[in-house]
Amino acid sequence: MNHKYQLVLLGCNTPIKDEIESNFFERVKNLGLSKNIIKIIEINNFNQEYKGNQPTFAIYFGDKNDNLDHLEVIESLIKDGTMILPIFFNDNSFEIEIPSILRNQNGIQYKDCELERIVNIILESFDLLRNTRKIFISYKRSESSSIAIQLFEALESHNFDVFLDTHSIQKGEPFQDELWHRMTDCDVIIVLNTPGFLESQWCKEELAEAAAKQIGIVQLVWPSHEVKNIEASSHLSFPIQLKEGDFVDNKYSDKDQSKLSPCIIDKIMSDVESVRARNLAARQDNLITEFRNIAEQNGRIITIQPEKILTENCSDGTHIIYIPTIGIPQSNNCQSAEIKKELLGYKDVSIRLIYDDLRIRDKWIKHLDWLNDSFNKDIKTLKKQDFESWLQTK
Question: DSSP for 340-362?
Fold first, then answer.
């Protein structure tokens, strides 16, 4: 392979560095990616190993003793347009632990609950995990409105785009169509499994829809309430059994006043990050498998690359890159497709963003079809219902 994803680790020599690196490579493995596509670069091998024309993400670990090292390397990375994530360790110490050249960057204070988030940020920066972060909250209004709003605010503070019916559907939009559309485009569904949750027909339909779309579910199960009647999506469901002590003042049955404690909120955030990565990988694998099976049936030879993109060498000497796209294709998917084309070194190449169009609203499908007809001839979308007809054309 003639390129690598470069992870640059700078700053103080902290044991946290090893934790992040270990967790990162475990996640790379779980995503079905090859470890060989990653190169770890530190200060001692930076001059020999770093290449400015390859995808790079850097982490700067702050120092509480104000030993601010590696400033020349930081300047070099900034000139190359590399994103650098500052990590600091103590409350209100960002400006003490982080050099001034990085103080205009958004940093993260390291806590155990932030490990998953940091690793996801790295994966997103390399476009190995999509960088839209969409969460859907499913709940019964008459039982858990206050908790739903609390989670909405907590998830937004962790840079998620959160769908909550009372906050997210504009006036005049067809409610149910928009709800299914937004669910299609989400990464994880958080279910507030209160005693009466499954008595609601809407809630049951949301779970069935999640199972059909193979979307991961984080279940928050209320105290003294058992997980049941959710077998259809059990292989995608990750329950958290709540206890009375997980609620402020042990109050969990007041739909307007109940609140979760900060500790359990931190656990939920960490679990959501983990489930999100696993679920996106599984959905991507399913899309790849289905596309390759149809291709094989039609005599097309499709090769899967280490980064989980698909390539086809055509008989006329041209090439096609197929990029599995989870949710609804966006403009940033086109931008990342251009980067992948450059990394693979192809000159005469076209790109197809393949995606599952089930439950995406008609107006979006028509918009994507219009873009295909009107703009970039080299990058187009290809919806699942057209896989067969497309693969029969050559």
Answer: HHHHHT-SSEEEEEEE--TT--H
Is residue 259 within 8 A of residue 148, CB to CB? The reply is no
Helices (H), the chain: 15-30, 46-49, 71-79, 94-97, 115-125, 141-157, 165-168, 175-184, 201-213, 262-297, 331-344, 362-374, 387-391
Least confident of 18-32, 37-51, 72-86, 119-133: 119-133
Which of 308 and 356 is assigned the larger pLDDT?
A: 356
| Strand pairing category for 134-138 and 303-304 | unpaired
User: What is the Cα–Cα distance from 36 to 53, expressed in whole angstroms?
Assistant: 18
Q: Positive or negative, the Cα torsion across 270, 246, 137, 203?
A: positive
Domains of the chain: 5-125 (3.40.50.10140), 134-277 (3.40.50.10140), 298-391 (no CATH)
The amino acid present at 303, given as its one-letter code, is T
Residue of 131, 130, 148 whose CA lies nearest to 139? 148
How many Å is the Cα radius of gyration of the chain? 23
Separation between Cα atoms, residue 210 and residue 202, nearest integer Å: 12
Q: What is the mean pLDDT of the chain?
A: 84
Nearest to 207 by CA among 140, 138, 275, 143: 138
pTM to 2 decimals?
0.74
